[in-house]
Each structure stands twice: as C-alpha cells, then as structure tokens.
C-alpha cells in the first residue's frame, strides 16, 4: 500500500532573485495539469478522490492544508478512517503525491492561494471521480 508522500523542494536566493526547484519529482507519469483557487479560506473542498488516478499537488501561491484518507471500501467506506494532514506553501516547490485509492480535503489557509494539480490520466480518459459528503468521516 502506497501512502501519500511529500517530495521536498527548495529555494535558492541570491542577488539575482529566487529559484524554486524540486530535483526529486519525476514528471514522467503526468498527463494533465490544472490549478485550484478556493473562493475563501473558510471553504473546504472535502473528500473527493480517485480509486485509480494519482495526483500531485504544489502551492504556487500562498498556503494550503491538504488532508488525505486511504479508502478501505469504495462502495461503503468506514466512517472512522483516519486522515493524514499536510501543509503546502509557496516558499519551496514541495510536491504532495496522493497515490490512487485516496480522497482529499483541500483548504486554502491564505487569501488568494493557488494550488497546481497534476494527474496521471487525461480528462475523461477514465470514469474515476468519487465524492463523499463533507461530514462523512468521524474525524
């Protein structure tokens, strides 16, 4: 079972400016890229995910809190599943890898934050989107 993993990036600064980089992230599997900007820091995009697709997230502006839950049964997930929590910030080019079989909760924790998302499937290539109610889990 593959768990979500934070792939650490970094930032180099000198008199010319800043370079944010991530030399550990392999983009070979990426087929699609898009961004997410929530309407406010109070709004949480809760418990959407994929049985087959995997995703990578990085904050390109501001900060985000991302929680993830590995689903045990897609027809009837246990309500007591525990979440893992991650914070992404624009300061470094960290990528959060969410493997297949997980749902996520995404909340901007700074106004105007923007999240870059990458997927290993093209749009409409498979029918693999699952949404649970925002209060589904007991955590």
Topology of this structure?
Layout: E1 5-7, E2 10-14, E3 17-21, E4 32-36, E5 44-50, E6 55-61, E7 63-70, E8 84-89, E9 95-98, E10 102-108, E11 114-119, E12 130-131
Quick synopsis:
The chain is mainly beta. It is 0% helix and 47% strand.
Query: How would you name the CATH homologous superfamily of the domain at 1-12 and 53-133?
Result: Jelly Rolls
Counting DSSP E segments of at least 2 residues, the number of strands comes to 12
Report, as a whole number of angstroms, the end-to-end distance: 22 Å
What order do the strands of the largest sheet run in, or round the barrel if closed? 1-9-6-11-4
Q: Write down the CATH class of the domain at 1-12 and 53-133.
A: Mainly Beta
Strand content: over 45%
Order of SSEs? EEEEEEEEEEEE
| Count of separate DSSP helical elements | 0
Low-confidence stretches: none
């Amino acid at each position: 079972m593959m768990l979500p993993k934070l792939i650490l990036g970094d930032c180099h600064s000198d008199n010319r400016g800043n370079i944010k980089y991530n030399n550990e992230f392999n983009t070979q599997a990426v087929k699609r890229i898009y961004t997410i900007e929530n309407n406010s820091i109070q709004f949480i995009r809760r418990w959407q995910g994929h049985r087959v697709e995997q995703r990578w997230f990085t904050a390109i502006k501001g900060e985000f809190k991302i929680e993830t839950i590995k689903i045990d049964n897609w027809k009837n997930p246990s309500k007591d599943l525990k979440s893992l929590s991650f914070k992404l910030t624009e300061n470094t080019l960290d990528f959060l890898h969410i493997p297949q079989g997980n749902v996520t909760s995404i909340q901007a924790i700074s106004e105007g934050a923007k999240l870059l998302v990458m997927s290993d499937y093209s749009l409409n290539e498979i029918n693999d989107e699952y949404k649970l109610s925002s209060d589904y889990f007991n955590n």
